[in-house]
Fold Glucosamine 6-phosphate N-acetyltransferase.
Amino acid sequence: MPFTPDNELELLFPPSFISAEVKSQLHPDVHIRPLASTDHGRGHLAVLSVLTVATDLGEEAWVAQFNAMRTAPKTYYSLVIVDKKSDKIVGAGTLFIERKFLRGLGTVGHIEDIAVDKEQQGKKLGIRIIQALTHISESSGCYKTILNCSDANIPFYVKCGFEKKENEMAKYA
Ligand code: ACO
């Protein structure tokens, strides 16, 4: 099945937010766009499962989460890369924008849940996802863009232009 054009989808945010430069650098077999309300059926959770447990609670529950994100204005920017031939998702990532009282009511972009299908890793999809999310963060006025990652992924993020700063703390419930 050929990939579905952006204008036939209900998207999480306007497709114009995706950098034209990143689009032009992307491999011609794939397309980058905002997450769509029908992406549960395109393997979104299967791609995320390369990261961690991505339990499938069914399409209805997935769509409810999509809608909750869509109604929070200027906050959630999840995007996907789809294979043009199969219309399946092969990469995904999210930018979450946090509003602050400090830094003159500044905003910070948090990059989360970056995942590329195992078969497609090493083809520059990951770096394009990071560049597209960083572009949204910077063009939205965020004074910094941050993320947490494993030691093994540090070289990837250095290639994406990030530097190591401070430490991550976690407390799981
Ligand atoms: N160590 C060293 N270099 C790396 C690594 C690594 N682990 N991963 C990628 N690179 C390099 C590539 O060789 C490439 O270098 P080059 O420009 O000199 O050729 C450059 O980084 C860009 O690599 P991509 O091809 O864009 O990487 P890919 O598409 O494979 O995506 C990713 C990288 C996202 C880490 C992918 O491998 C993946 O999904 N891994 C499993 C899930 C994961 O760990 N996600 C990140 C979690 S952190 C977070 O979500 C904030």
User: Anything to note?
Assistant: Residues 50-51, 111-116, 121-127, 147-149, 152-153, 155-156, 159 surround acetyl coenzyme *A (CB under 6 Å).
